[in-house]
Structures are given as C-alpha cells and as structure tokens.
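User: what does the whole thing look like in 3D?
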Amino acid sequence: MREVAIIGIGQTPVEEHWDKSLRDLAGEAIFKALNDAGRKNIEGLYVGNMMSGMLSKQENLGALIADWVGFKGIEAAKVEAACGSGAAALRMGLMAVGSGLLDCVGVVGVEKMTDGLPNETTAALATASDADYEAAQGVSFVAINALVMRRYMYEYGWKHADFAPFSINAHANAVHNPNARLQEAITEKDYLIARMVADPINLLDASPTGDGAAAVVLVPTETIRNNKKPVIKIIGSGSATDSVAVHARHEPTWLFAAEKSALKAYSQAGLGPQDIDLFEVHDAFSIMSVLSLEACGYAARGQGPRLGLDGEITLHGRIPITTMGGLKARGHPVGATGIYQIVEVIQQLRGEAGENQIDGVKIGMAQNIGGSGSAIITHILKAT
Amino acid sequence: MREVAIIGIGQTPVEEHWDKSLRDLAGEAIFKALNDAGRKNIEGLYVGNMMSGMLSKQENLGALIADWVGFKGIEAAKVEAACGSGAAALRMGLMAVGSGLLDCVGVVGVEKMTDGLPNETTAALATASDADYEAAQGVSFVAINALVMRRYMYEYGWKHADFAPFSINAHANAVHNPNARLQEAITEKDYLIARMVADPINLLDASPTGDGAAAVVLVPTETIRNNKKPVIKIIGSGSATDSVAVHARHEPTWLFAAEKSALKAYSQAGLGPQDIDLFEVHDAFSIMSVLSLEACGYAARGQGPRLGLDGEITLHGRIPITTMGGLKARGHPVGATGIYQIVEVIQQLRGEAGENQIDGVKIGMAQNIGGSGSAIITHILKAT
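Assistant: Here's the predicted 3D structure for the full assembly of 768 residues, as structure tokens:
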C-alpha cells in the first residue's frame, strides 16, 4: 500500500450550533482543511457520522456534503461505527488513497446533537448498544458505562475520587483550546460534588454532547512537494471489534478491541507504547480513559487510575492524554470525535497547539471508541 | 492496486421476515457466502445499510454482525449511501483487499423495512432526499421520482404505457427466482390499470420494500488456487455523486452520476457498453431503468423507453436487464439491494441462474443508485 499523509486539518468549535445545519458545519471544517492544505480539489469524500438520520432526518450525507462544498460528482459515502465513526471514515480514506484508487481525499466527521429533545439524543445514543439485548431492557448508554465502571472499582479496589485526575486534566487542557465546548478548569472538589448521572458516573465523569465537525485532507506521501507545514504521515492504523453487548464479553472490564486495534497499529508502525509522545484517548467517560490506557500498554491491568494519580497523563507527564481537552471538555459530537482527535494530534505534531504545546513531540496516537468498546480504531501519526 | 475477485455469494429471500432480526438476516447471507466460497474466516466485514438506526433502533451494525457470525475482533464498519449503500460497502471491501491491508473480506447488505408502520418507512426513505430543501416541503421519495418521470415524459413525448415493458420484464424474470418477493408475471393490462401511487408512478412502476440480506466474499485474485467455481473478477468500479436535491441539478432528467460512475468503471475495465453481456439496473422506479440505460450508453438521450418497446432488455435481447427480477420484483431492501445485484450478476456469469440463465455471458455490470441519482456506484464483473 502507498504511504499516506495528512496535509490539511480543519475544525469548527464544538458548541450548540443552532444556526448551522449538518452541511454548514461539515463545509466549514472541509474548507478550513483544504485551505490549510493549500488544495482546491478532492477526488473523494468520506463522512464519519452516526445519527444524522435519527436526529436530522438526513441520510445520504456523502453526496449531500460533496455537493455543498462544490465538488459535485466526486465519490462520497458515509461511514458509521457508532462513536468510532470518525476514525472508521479516516480508515476508508486511508484505503482509498493507499490503494492507489484516489490521489486526494477529504475525510470529515460531523454530528449535530443539540437540536432535538434530550430524550431523542439519549435514544439515538442507545443505538450504539445492542438494541435487542441491552437497550430493550431500558439501560441507557451512560448506564452501560456505569456498570463497567462499578465493576472495575469493585474488582480492583478503586474509589470514585481516584478517577478525578482524568477529568481535571481534560478540563485544564480545554481552557486554552478555542474549539472546546467547556473552556473551564475544574477542581477535585468540583469533581467530588458533581451531580450523579448514573452511579458511579457523575456529570464530571461524562463528556458533553455537542454539534461540530472536523476534517482532514489525505494524499500519497510520495506526491508531496515543498509543503509549507510539516508533513504528517499515517504510520499505523488498526481497526477491531468486540461484542456490542457488554454482558456478552468474557471480561467486561478489559477493552479487547482497543488492545487488538492498538497492536495492529503498533505492528504496522514498528513501534510500541514507549515510542508514543502523546495519546488522544476516547474519554467519553473517565473509565474509558483508564481502560484505553491499560489496553494500549501504559498500565498493568487494573492499574490505569495510577497514571492519573501520579500525574503521568498531564502535558508534562510520561504519556500526555486529552491534550486539547479530550471528549470530556472539548466535547463529544459523536461521529466527529475521531477526526477531532486526529486534528489535535496533528496540532501537537506540527507545534500548533499553542499554550498546550508539548515540546519535541514527533509521534502521536489517537484511539476512537464506538459502542462501549465494540468498534475501536487506532491511528499512529508521525511528523517528518 | 491488487486485482480483487469474488469467490462466494449468498442471499436470503426478500420477504416480510417478521421472525428474523437484522443480525439473523445478515448472518444467513454471510454463512451462505462463506460456504459457497469454501472459507471459514474473514478479516474484515463491511455492512451496507441505510435505515437500521431509524427503523430498528440499531446502529453499530459492523461490530454487531461481526460478533454474531462468530468473527469477534475483526475490523468492521457500516457504509451508507442511501439506496446505494450496498455497492458503497462493496467498494470499501474492494479498497480494503485491493490496497493489500486485508486478504479476505466479507461484504453484506442488509435492510429490515417491514416491522414498522408504513409511515415510518416512508419517513426513513425520505432521508435519502434533501431534508432541508425537499423532504421539509412534504414531498415523499416516490413523489420526487414522479416529478422526474413526469418531466421526462413531457420533454421527450412518451406516454405512461411506453414504460410497461420494464415492469413486465422484471416480473417475468422474478417468476423463476426463489429469492424474489413478487414471483408473479404481469401483463400490460395489469400495468395500465394498477392503482396510482404518485402520478405518473403507479404500483407497477414502483419496487416493493422488503427485508433481506445478500453477501459476498472478496479475496485477491492472485491468492486463488483450484477454485471449484468460476472465479469472478471485479474489473471495473466507479463511484460518483450529484446534488441530492433533484431541483438543484442542471438536467433533472439526466443521471449525471450514473454516467460518471459508469465511465470510470468502463475506463478501468478497458471496455464500453457494447462489451457488457447483462446489466443489473437499479429499477427502484421504471423511470430509473430508462435513465440508467441512457446514462450508461445504451440509448440516446430521451430514447431509453425504445429499448423496452423493442424487446432489447429481455433475457434474449441486446442488453438484458433485471435478469432475476430487479428491484421491481425481486424486491428492494434498500441497503441490501446493491449486493443482491452483484450476487445476481455472478449467478449469471457462473451459469447458476437456472431458468433465467443467459447463454455465454462473460461480463456483467451492476449499477446501484442512492437518493434519486445522487450517489451512484457501478461495478463490472468478469468470469475467468
């Protein structure tokens, strides 16, 4: 396969964009990415999105957005893998360019979640779980994750307060990210007294929904000439799945698909966890950060919270995570999140992360998780 | 890119499968395809589906079905391009294998449309049109196609009866297809007196919805050894889009994306329309058969109905279409249709089409259309 590089990035702020439609948001991110890339055309467009049909009564997003941004006629499709839709669409773009079929591709993640009533959004999110064996029992998506967190605390003896550093770190990093939904620092006390959503997940364990779009432009590395900005290569990509129903998994507190997708990405890149300078984890809930770090080799099983308590996850720690605020504070427009993560890794690798810039970073990883761990895609990027 | 071949096919009957869920149907088609291929494993699974979130409250179909068929851990995702979702998923499989990333991939199209109330299905189908500029005006998906047909009849002077041969041919071919929803022949009189749905589209111009799944297994041609059945190679693949809103197109009666995707496929295959032995068109409505045949080079602009009137589209004609019943009579479970078309082309190329077998066919084409012509994918297959 041809080596593929990302030469353009774009994002909208994550907000309640009541004045912008799905196509407005996607278009804004795509135009920013094209401008950043210094390109005027793309040959294909892959759209990461989960819930446009349910919440905006709009499917067929590929053609809709391709036309809206002025590229009528190009190849386009939507890719869905629940909250992992963004990275799943990126992987399709990678295959399109890597295979040699297309030479310049746009990938956009877009989601619009705040127009409907809250119960509509909750119902749409529940479609990421098993409709027949989970959702039909009345369990919401947050509640499923709460069961996992409760079990994890029981098995390994952690207290709820031990998860505080993940939320505090994400919020601290969002303060300087103009695209973050919650640009506000929180204290441990805030975390401890936050109102409960689904015990033990409280409001500061859970990422906020939001409207937003993020986009990237992909080309074969071999075709890049005199690029103004550092070229960022995709050196590892792995996608893996697990049972959608958490109760059907052998170990509900272990992210089998995260481990498998990370191992594929590490293997392709010829690297291991120790080689990664920063890691955008999928912290939809604080327990997910912990499980993702363990599955990717940063902590022993059951010891993930230690990384937070020891300060290893901050911008100055051993493995900085959620460096621009993560899902927790940047916000989680579900189908867009996987591309926001990629854009943020690239901001760091290019030295464009502003106040949050980590010195000397060369290799970054992003892991996008769909459906409480059932569809997981890991990408490793390298600056050259 | 590596050359890719299809070594296994499977399908369920198109029916009202009230006793089978989405995963049951998809699993049935996948197991049949694996059995047909003589394979026990796949490394990736791409699911073509449009409306599972809206009608079955289930997204995340990739992981769900991968687990259900016993391949927990493999890569999986859902691909959506309205009624073109099936062929869009096939194209993703083609890129996955062609790029060298995966060596054996399953592609399944699945849709379950008959469990809900008819108005729910109509609303779900309308998400293939432009939610803000078409559906919001109250126009249904059938009505949009009726506007196109009305305009076409006005521009080129055709009467409604001139479209009868397309429906009669599809129904005649479905009689011998055990997987077809409507295994019944119709007469010209039946066509003329059928009740109106959206003038000028009557019940026998419109394809029926249905539940069903169809699947294929893809491998690199170079890895095939001693295959028991004829190896079917994908020699052409093209995907293109157009404005979703029909009123935004320069020429509402010309399928720009069909022409563009067919030209890409012809070019890749090094062939032209005269080299195709049979053509599975996307006859969601009879007007779509006409427009597809014109766009792909089988009739001059405005002259498509002539092919029906002259008997050119039958099993013994110059360009046989809908050889197993087409969408009109096999049925149109929307996200599955694109794979049913591929399976049927392969039945013909292998000589497994039973009573409908066309003698000496070597090269077949399938064109899958999403959203009244806004997302169109064309594949050309060749028996070796």
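In plain terms: Chain A touches chain B through 63 residues (CB under 8 Å). The two ends of chain A are 19 Å apart (CA to CA).
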